Structure formats: structure tokens, C-alpha cells
Amino acid sequence: MSARETRPRHARQVADAALSSFRAVVINGPRQAGKTTLARELARTHAAMLVSLDESSLYDACRADPTAFLDAYPRPLFIDEFQRAGDLLVRAVKVAVDAERSPGQFLLTGSSRFLTMAGLSESLAGRAAIIDLWPYAQGEAGQLGPDSDCLLTHLFDSTITLTQLGTPYPSRTEYLQRLCRGGFPEVHELPAEARPGWFDAYVTTIIERDVPLIARGRHLNELPRLLRVLAARTSQELNLASLSVATGIDRASLSRNYLPLLENIYLVRQLPAWSRNLTARTVKHPKAYITDSGLAASMLGVDPTAMVLPNAPTLGPLVETFVVGELVRQLSFGTGARPTLYHFRSPDGPEVDVVVEAPDGRVVAVEVKASGAVGPGDFRHLALLRDRLDDIGQPYVAGVVIYLGDKVLPFGDRLTALPMCHLWQAG
Asked: 361: exposed, middle or buried (C-beta count within 10 Å: 0-12, 13-18, 19+)?
């Protein structure tokens, strides 16, 4: 058994609960994030049959007659890489779970947001729970247990006081090593010199294997260039006009086809702009991020030694990409209605890297600093946002600056500086 298989995943508990409540469970996530390993563990626990549509004979049989394929197996049935069989399989699952309403009949894993395609999201609405499985969060990678990777939970709980950790803090170099490694389980088992080749092959596999299933063969030639440009702009606002000039792809195609495609195959994520009428001139562009900091660093050709200097041009964007990735992972571990991540900027006021809004309207704001020290100026925009939200009566729970230092520091009313490792370690 490999080290990858022995590392517990936070999503395991979420999936167990979903299988006891929903007729079907869909686990989506990037290729090589650990979906098959998790499905195998769940199949053992739930006494389920696990089949993979990566096997050509099973794929051919499923494509020929999805209903007969499902009827050939007892329940529960877990299907790995289900998106390869297309919408006919989804509709066959819908018919099956409508005929038999007991929970836990199917678990489907896929490497694309297949169900976001027109018509398919409605097919399993109310019948299936959808879980995103991302590459390792840092607590999972370090096997820190179920209480790790919970900073957002702590920040929204205003009764919890964040305190200094009792263990040594990572050095700047250790932080940068984590950033350049990213979260993919297989990368954690490779020496540093082998990782660039792995990431190159990873992108090639997705473009040549997964994209044709969704895009029907379109966009293949343009995607590598577009992805490199987006990597160079990770954590920046998405300016379609500038991106069009840099890539030679017209704005309409970028907006309608290319960017949604890159999100559907988990290579890029967007943080929408946030506004609650705080200003009439709020900037509405989303920010775009490569979904894994290790992948972004590899595409930019940088390693920890290239980012040692505080003014290294890739340092700030990659640190923010890393932090946002960890926050996204933490949101995926929850159940029920979850907070949503945004960014905020207005020409005449605060600019905040991440605004996290809970369904009840409570707000946590996060700034990211790629330095080992913080000062009052780093909290200016967080304080302005706090005061504006207080004025309109929307609950501002906490504002934090996440940085590369080693001290938890209070900087005023609901404002705190936190070392980056507090993302995954409780304190």
C-alpha cells in the first residue's frame, strides 16, 4: 500500500454522510486528485461494486446500452470516470434512482464538471449530492488529522480566539517548498527534480484526453498557450481585452468557450467580484487562479530558490494562489449551505484579496502578504471594509492578514495577522 493510500481525506466523512442520505453521490475533481483511491475505500466500507470506465470493454458496453450496463450489477454500484460515457449514462442513472428511491445506490467519480453541461445538472437535481475532491490540503498531506484545515471554521466562530501555536513555525523556505509542491498526491511521492515532467504530462493528458469529451475536439491547439498566459497572470483580475491580445483568441470565445472549459476540467478557477452596494463604482472583473500552486509554479518555471528574494516577481501571485487553493479546499469539506469566496476592489476604496460570505450574510475578509512582517498599513483595506459593513449592518466577523511570519498579532477591532500555517494547523 502506497503512502498516498494511507493518508485520510476530509472528504471521506462527507461522502459517507452523503451516501446515507442521497440516492446517488457524485465526486468531481481534478485528474489525479485521489478520487479513485477514495472510491475504492468507500466501496469497501459500503460493500459496493466498483467499476471503471477507463477499462475499454466496460466503456464500450456502457456506451452501447447504459441501462443494461447498470442492470448487470448489484447495488450499490460505484462507477469511476463516469463522464466518459456521456449524458446517456447520467440519464440512465436518473431513471434507475427514480424507480428505486433508497439512498446510496450509486457513486460516480469524474474528472470534469460534467454535470454543469446544459440539461445534465437538472437530471440528478434533488437525487444526487455533488462533492468536489481537490488535491491534498496541507493538513491531509501532513496527516494532521480531522481537526486540521479548519481556519475558516475558526474565523466564522467569533467565540474562538486564535492563539500562537505550540510547535515551531515553518521557515520561509519551507513555505515556498509547500507552495511549489502543491497538493497532487502523486507529486508528494516524487523528488523535486521529477515534478516538472509530471506536471507537463498532466496538462498534456487533460488536453488530449478530457477536453475532447467536453469540447468535441475544439480548442485543443489554443489551450496550452492560453493556460501559460493565465499562469503568468494567476491571482490577477481577468481582463478579457488584454487576454485576447496576449492569446489571439477573441473576447467572445474566451468568455463563452475557453474559460468555462478550463474551469470544467479543474485547471483554472475564478473568484467573482463581490459587492453589497458599498460603492457605486465597484470593479466587477473576476480574478483568475491556476487551481494548484504547484502546477502554477511548474508552468512558470520557478522553484523555491527562484522566490527567495522578497521582490521575486512570481512570489506574491503564487503565495495568493496557494492560500486561495487552501481556502477552496476547506469549503469543500463542509456539508449543507457553504460560504462563497469572492474578491473585492473599488477604485476609491478597499481592495481585499478574498471576501468569504456565509449564507447568512456574515463576512470574513482575508489579505495575503508574501512577507515575513506586517504593519498597520497592511490592515488599512480590511479596516475600511469592516467600517463600511458596520455602517450598513452586515456582520463583519473577522479580517486577517495571512503572511509568512511566525507570530499571531492583533491589529485592532476584529483584525489579526496570522502566519500562513494557521490555514492548516489549529491555534
From this structure: exposed
HEC letters along 87-141: HHHHHHHHHHHHHCCCCCCEEEEECCCHHHCCCHHHHCCCCEEEEECCCCCHHHH
Question: Which residues, in sequence order, are bridge partners of residue 401?
Answer: 367, 417
- Alpha-carbon gap, residue 292 to 324, rounded angstroms: 9
Selection from 312, 287, 311 nearest residue 302 by Cα? 312
CB burial of residue 277 (10 Å; 0-12, 13-18, 19+): exposed
Asked whether the whole model's pTM tops 0.90, one would answer: yes
If you average pLDDT over each of 21-30, 216-225, 348-357, which comes out highest?
Answer: 21-30
Closest CA to 132 of 146, 112, 152: 112
| Position 327, amino acid | L
By residue count, the chain amounts to: 427
For residue 148, give every residue at least 6 positions away whose Cβ sits within 8 Å of its Cβ, in sequence order, or none: 137, 138, 139, 140, 142, 424, 425, 426
> Checking DSSP bridges between strand 268-271 and strand 409-410, what pairing results, if any?
unpaired
* Cβ 172 vs Cβ 372: under 8 Å: yes
> DSSP string spanning 152-220?
HHHHH-TTPPP---SSPPPPHHHHHHHHHH-S-TTGGGS-GGGHHHHHHHHHHHIIIIIHHHHHTTTTT
Alpha-carbon Rg for the chain in angstroms = 22
| Chain region(s) in the chain for CATH 3.40.50.300 | 3-132
Average pLDDT, the chain: 90
What proportion of the chain, given as a percentage, has pLDDT over 70? 93
Which CATH number is associated with domain 3-132? 3.40.50.300
